Amino acid sequence: MSGTRERLLVVCPGRGTYNQTEWGSLLRHAAGSEWLTRFDARRREAGLPTLSELDGEMPFRQSLHGRGEHVAPLIHACALADLLAIDPGRYEIVAVTGNSMGWYIALAAGGALEHEEAFTLIGSMGLMMQEALIGGQLLYPWVDEQWRPQWSRRRELLALIGRLHGEEERELYLSIELGGMLVFGGNEAGLAALSEALPPRERFPLRLPQHAAFHTPLQREVRDAARERFTAAPFRAPRVPLVDGRGHVWTPWSSDPQALWDYTLGEQLVAPYDFTAALRVGVREFAPDRIVIPGPGATLGGATAQALIQLGWQGLDDKAAFQARQAEDPLLISMGIEAQRNLVVG
């Protein structure tokens, strides 16, 4: 591809990507940057610990760093540092998507929000969800050990929702279609019944710490508060096509900013987020040469690879084939892995 820029699909990370192993990654890549100084000043004015303090001075504590008002802007800042480091001379970003909270980052990465505006939205939504903390999320895989789809297992898992929901004050919903995993959202009674019904499998079923029942009707209260608080004014048509959690494409030439606001602070909060569909549309509609996941961390890489295997993208049909291709010439670049980050930075 000499003389031609490679096409990238950018996949922005969600809430679960900044953990103890990622502590320090923001300052490693963004210390002294003008935009991080502005972000820190905004948080200091709001009486919150700065991102630099959280990432560099305060020892990692899940109870602190995992809170929505801290972890959400930390992840946004880490992703921004990586996005700004991609070499524009060698790579062209042809579309942007994200997983769950990554949709807000995608809005900024695609130009539908300025990063300052996204920083306000992300921090505020993180705080609102943390203060409400309605319900929770539970993760369970439906693919086999080689990441091959087991469709009958998936049907059985989805059937559990219908069987358990509504009994004994249980609320249980599909929250996220996450590659080879399903994320369930529900109240405590619903999640407890689901945990009991699911056969143990390695570390699963896995309850996600400090996660509310995102993308379910349990978030209606947060949705209504967010729509009152935020106007559509900062939203604009993106500069780069965006693929949302339904697989819908928002293009620079046809997007209505009011509709984009309505989805972001409406359906997106209370209906299932189909990350797998977003990837399917991203690779089929925009034919990227590679897929890039900004940091922090690399936990989204597995789910992304599982979705690509389901699609048979580039001939991938199982985990071994994916790993062999990654060793030879990576199709999927997780910038939270330093060696892979170095492949795309300027």
How would you describe what is shown here?
It is a single chain. The chain has 346 residues and is an alpha/beta fold. The chain is 46% helix and 14% strand. The chain contains 16 helices and eleven strands. It has helices at residues 25-30, 34-45, 51-56, 62-65, 68-85, 102-109, 115-132, 151-164, 188-197, 220-229, 257-264, 267-270, 275-286, 300-311, 319-328, 338-344, and strands at residues 6-12, 91-98, 136-141, 172-178, 181-186, 206-207, 242-243, 249-250, 273-274, 290-293, 332-334. Strands 6-3-5-4-9 form a five-stranded mixed β-sheet. Helix 5 packs antiparallel against helix 7 and helix 7 runs antiparallel to helix 10 (220-229). The model has no long low-confidence stretch (mean pLDDT 95).
Keywords:
346 residues; alpha/beta; five-stranded mixed sheet; 46% helix
Fraction of residues in β-strands = 5-15%
Mean pLDDT: 95
State Rg: 19 Å
Largest sheet: 5 strands, mixed
Q: What is the succession of H and E elements?
A: EHHHHHEHHEHEEHEHEEHHEHEHHEH
Neighbour order of strands in the largest sheet: 6-3-5-4-9
| DSSP strand tally | 11
Give the assembly state of these chains. Answer: single chain
Spans of at least 5 consecutive residues whose pLDDT stays below 50 are: none
Helix/strand/pairing class, anyone? alpha/beta
Helix content: 40-55%
Q: What is the terminal-to-terminal distance?
A: 18 Å
Short précis:
The chain is α/β, with parallel strands linked by helices. The chain contains 16 helices and eleven strands.
Fold topology:
Layout: E1 6-12, H1 25-30, H2 34-45, H3 51-56, H4 62-65, H5 68-85, E2 91-98, H6 102-109, H7 115-132, E3 136-141, H8 151-164, E4 172-178, E5 181-186, H9 188-197, E6 206-207, H10 220-229, E7 242-243, E8 249-250, H11 257-264, H12 267-270, E9 273-274, H13 275-286, E10 290-293, H14 300-311, H15 319-328, E11 332-334, H16 338-344
Helix pairs in contact: 5-7, 6-7, 7-10
